[in-house]
Specification:
The structure is a single chain. The protein is an alpha/beta fold. Helices cover 47% and strands 12% of the residues. The protein has a six-stranded parallel β-sheet with strand order 1-8-5-4-2-3, sandwiched between helices. A two-stranded antiparallel sheet has the order 6-7. The protein is globular. The model has no long low-confidence stretch (mean pLDDT 97). GO terms for molecular function: alcohol dehydrogenase (NAD+) activity; metal ion binding.
């Protein structure tokens, strides 16, 4: 519990109105590749124009690449890297949610390294080569609260050809500057506010379950869990509730730190397998679908009872004295956020895929299984999918 390593070079500007500080900051380059999603919201809400104006004020030139989708794919990463080289960009500004910031790490690496992204991916069909050159520096501007990617140099990328979704990154790709301005999050629709909020929650709950938990990661994770559990229903109900947005943003950004201190568990491996095979499945939705059965597996094994009790207390059951109280708190939060009725079948998943998904989870991100508080076999993993299926 008292042994850990923490190193983070990111200069974090957190709080409402913090985007307005960008123009006065010393940037890590002169010409920015500005990454945004392929949706309309970043432009329609004025966030892109505001960011471009701030970058101009800071003396930077810009070009915009607007092709990042919800689950970023390898081919678009390679296209973005080529676009950055063609335009002589020397740093990246990632303006968006987790997908955009995840993509920025991969694009930053591939601007300066030869070959294909999958040459440098560890896991699945990746060729596990080390990066030869340092990637472009990154400025991350978060417009959603879910991944905490603004605080680390890792992201998750899909390969449509191989039907894989695998983490990629390197500590050297950690953003030089991160701006987390909850004012930019007020326009996220209720459904996605819930999905993203639960992603942030599970980053922290998985850290709490992990056998690598330490005093610092536990302290931060419990603080984040408390904020998310109390304020996520408010943010879902009223997206303009700035206090709620601030609290959820805090929980998400803190997860970016807790995940550096302590690994998440196989719950994330399992969901990445689900959305690798069913690309239209939002990551947070998939996590919600399997969360109850995943936690119950460890409760039945008595693998980390005290951790579940601590989380239940942080989630509002102050008299919690048994691990099952965490399940009660979890289900209450899902009901309060309107996500208790999500179904795998609505996204094309069939129950006979359970073992395929289990094996995919281990193949793509088997390292996260090692963080589980007790052993989980492929059969156990398939059983969780089956138990979660609707």
């Amino acid at each position: 519990m008292m042994s850990f390593n923490f190193s983070n070079p990111t200069n974090l500007y957190f709080g409402s109105g913090s985007l307005n500080r960008l123009g006065s900051l010393k940037l890590p380059g002169k010409k920015a590749l500005v990454l945004i999603s392929n949706g309309k919201s970043t432009k329609a809400n004025g966030y892109l124009d505001r960011t471009l104006a701030e970058l101009k004020k800071a003396g930077a030139e810009t070009v915009v690449f607007d092709k990042i989708m919800e689950n970023p794919v390898k081919d678009v990463i390679m296209e973005g890297a080529a676009f950055a080289r063609e335009n002589d960009c020397d740093f990246i500004v990632a303006l968006g949610g987790g997908a955009v910031i995840d993509a920025s790490s991969a694009i930053a690496a591939m601007v300066t390294n030869q070959g294909d992204l999958w040459d440098y991916v560890f896991g699945g069909t990746g060729k596990c080569q080390p990066l030869s050159n340092t990637g472009l520096p990154i400025v991350a501007i978060a417009t959603t609260s879910g991944t905490g990617s603004e605080m680390n140099g890792f992201g998750v990328i899909s390969n449509l050809e191989t039907k894989e979704k695998i983490g990629f990154g390197n500590p050297s790709l950690t953003p030089a500057i991160a701006i987390v301005d909850p004012e930019l999050m007020q326009t996220v629709p209720a459904k996605y506010t819930a999905y993203q909020g639960f992603d942030a929650l599970f980053h922290n709950t998985e850290v709490m379950m992990s056998k690598g938990i330490n005093k610092l990661s536990e302290t931060i994770a419990l603080s984040a869990i408390e904020s998310i559990a109390e304020y996520l229903p408010r943010a879902v109900k009223n997206g303009k509730d700035l206090e709620a947005r601030e609290q959820i943003a805090y929980g998400s950004t803190m997860a970016g730190i807790t995940m550096q201190l302590t690994s998440t568990t196989a719950q994330h491996s399992m969901e990445h397998s689900m959305s690798a095979y069913h690309h239209n499945l939002p990551h947070g939705a998939g996590l919600i679908m399997i969360s109850k059965a995943f936690a119950e597996f460890f409760i039945e094994k008595h693998a980390c009872d005290e951790q579940f009790i601590k989380m239940a207390k942080a989630m509002g059951i102050h008299q919690a004295d048994k691990p099952e109280d965490f399940i009660t708190a979890l289900l209450q939060l899902q009901e309060a956020c309107g996500v208790a009725d999500l179904k795998m079948s609505d996204y094309g998943i069939t129950i006979d895929e359970a073992m395929t998904l289990a094996k995919g989870a281990r193949s793509m991100q088997g390292g996260l299984f090692e963080a589980n508080p007790c052993e989980m076999t492929d059969e156990d993993c398939a059983g969780i999918f089956e138990k979660s299926y609707r």
